[in-house]
Amino acid sequence: MSSVHDYQIGWTVLIVRLPSEPSRHRVAVWRELRRVGAIQLGQGSWALPAAPAFADTVGKLVGLVAEHEGEVLALTASAADQPTSARIRESYDKARLAEWVEFESECTKCVEEIEREIAKEKFTLAELDEEEQNVDRVRRWHRELSLRDVFSSVSPEKSQAHLDLCTDALDRFTTMVYATVGLS
């Protein structure tokens, strides 16, 4: 996955210190770091690619740490050598791949749920609203994952195909609901 020039990739490194109590503050910061796609380098140190997609993210993380009476050092760095660069990049790609696997699983569940509703002939506007919300959630998640997957750990076509399965199932369900309730 790594190329000879990966050591030139810039990273934003965050070194975070938070009070040990209350622990909910540490958990809140940890969750936000994970949510935005940061990878943990070591105790209290995290990295994100120094890419435009993360520009606002770093400021928000710094603000969140300060809000919880912590300290953060935000540094821009690049690996000193190819092996270090490869390890960081591999960690980042592995984290993105795990997210995409979870996304694909969620898409499968979404399609299965819609298919169950079709099989039960549960063609109500309330059910349609619920399924639309679920597909909208999956769309937002796809958008977020795509933005932070700056190295394309999975092919964009593959992830889009999984999302398309959800939207196609929703379109079929929508047509059936509208026909049933007389809106077609």
Topology (elements, then pairings):
Layout: E1 10-17, H1 23-35, E2 39-42, E3 45-49, H2 55-67, E4 71-78, H3 82-119, H4 125-148, H5 156-181
Antiparallel strand pairs: 1-3, 1-4, 2-3
Quick tags:
four-stranded antiparallel β-sheet; disordered N terminus; 184 residues; alpha+beta; 14% strand; elongated; 5 helices; single chain
Tell me what the structure shows.
The chain is an alpha+beta fold. 62% of the residues lie in helices and 14% in strands. It is built from 5 helices and 4 strands. The chain has helices spanning 23-35, 55-67, 82-119, 125-148, 156-181; strands at 10-17, 39-42, 45-49, 71-78. Helix 3 (82-119) packs parallel to helix 5 (156-181) and helix 4 (125-148) packs antiparallel against helix 5 (156-181). The chain is elongated and about 60 Å long. The model is unreliable at 1-5 (pLDDT under 50).
Number of helices: 5
Q: Ends: how far apart?
A: 49 Å
Strand content: 5-15%
Largest sheet entry? 4 strands, antiparallel
Uncertain regions spanning at least 5 consecutive residues: 1-5
Could you tell me the number of beta strands? 4
Please write the string of helix (H) and strand (E) elements.
EHEEHEHHH
Q: Can you tell me the overall shape?
A: elongated
How much helix is in the residues?
55-70%
Cα gyration radius (Å): 21 Å
Q: What's the overall average pLDDT, rounded?
A: 91
Can you list the strand order of the major beta sheet?
2-3-1-4
Structural class by secondary-structure content: alpha+beta
